[in-house]
Amino acid sequence: MTANPHIRIFDTTLRDGEQSPGASMTHTEKLELASLMEDMGVDVIEAGFPAASDGDFAAVSAIAAQSKSAIICGLARSTPSDIERCAEAVKKAARPRIHTFISTSPVHMKHKLKMGPNAVLEAVGRSVAQARNHTDDVEWSAEDATRTDFDFLCKCIDVAIASGATTINVPDTVGYSHPDEYGALFRRLIENVPNSDKAIWSAHCHNDLGLAVANSISAVANGARQIECAINGLGERAGNAALEEVVMAMKVREDTLPFSTGINPIYLSRASAMVSRITGFPVQYNKAIVGKNAFAHESGIHQDGMLKNAETYEIMKPEDVGVAKTSLVMGKHSGRHAFRDKLESMGYFLEGDALNDAFKRFKTLADKKKHVFDDDIAVLVDDQLAAEGE
Ligand code: KIV
Ligand code: ZN
């Protein structure tokens, strides 16, 4: 049996993620997070944008120096000074990468760069060649690729590969694509760009329409072999594709997405909690994989199913992603079966009328109170047992 193709996980929490307004991290926090990423099995850590500030430079250098196995990548615009600064920052890594980019869409070239297509093409070749003087691992990105003229995009990528780029990233910078469209773009590019097999193709999706994960998966199904993502989906504006979601989408649905990653999912909830603590950004309760409610069940029907067999309402095991266990939350939707199970876990073994009474009192309480805690249940049952004993 042949192994599934390996999808590289490129984590940009420390670069694109840190660009989220309000998400800045200290030097020590960045080192702590980078270390967890390596333990988790991230292939490429985008540690920062060294030319952006002295602090970013110092963080990228320190992460490079502490790295063991992961590729450590720094971002650089196509200017010579950015590339030199980036090369200096990543040089202590066992596996350094320079990631250089320039915009290729008409709107970006005209209004942001104020450059014509020929000047952009010249910058692509020059910047990639300069980066290659420092390392043989160079990634090139066409910023705003999904709003770029297809033929021009092919030309830029052709020049980047010919100049030595080993990874080609096709970002959906403004989160504009739909999954079919983004997947088709990869397929067409891989079919049309000369020497497309000389580079690894990478997806970098933003979540402005909530499609970043779906787009990334579609890219993989159409030839991409690297996904750029961030823990908790952190990133500019609505964020990047969430690392935990792309990883588990492939793991849980290996039947239709026969790909594998090097991520050990047991670390996912810890990584999510660490990013949330460091940035102060709470994780949405119903966030897939790592949200507080991702493995919580309140309705009686669901709780009953869960108590009979967890596969009724869970498609993955909570412990596989580092969550201690499923929780059956006691509320007004809970059923007798779950209530009894909860009582037993608390050391109360009620039967017959005593159980019926306690359940009735619990339902009355749950109608009045949003959260019914174990302590509430204990008081309710203790009162009942005391009254029965009188
Ligand atoms: O979204 C984007 O286009 C980027 C590039 C710099 C890769 O973050
Ligand atoms: Zn981005």
Automatic annotation (TrEMBL):
Q: Which residues participate in Mn(2+) binding?
A: 16, 204, 206, 240
Q: Which GO terms describe its biological process?
A: L-leucine biosynthetic process
Q: Please list the GO terms describing molecular function.
A: 2-isopropylmalate synthase activity; acetyl-CoA C-acetyltransferase activity; manganese ion binding
State the GO CC annotations: cytosol
As its record notes, the protein acts as a catalyst of:
3-methyl-2-oxobutanoate + acetyl-CoA + H2O = (2S)-2-isopropylmalate + CoA + H(+)
In what pathway does it function?
Answer: Amino-acid biosynthesis; L-leucine biosynthesis; L-leucine from 3-methyl-2-oxobutanoate: step 1/4
Domain Pyruvate carboxyltransferase, chain residue ranges per copy: 7-269
Binding partners and assembly: Homodimer.
Record family assignment: Belongs to the alpha-IPM synthase/homocitrate synthase family. LeuA type 1 subfamily.
Protein name, per record: 2-isopropylmalate synthase
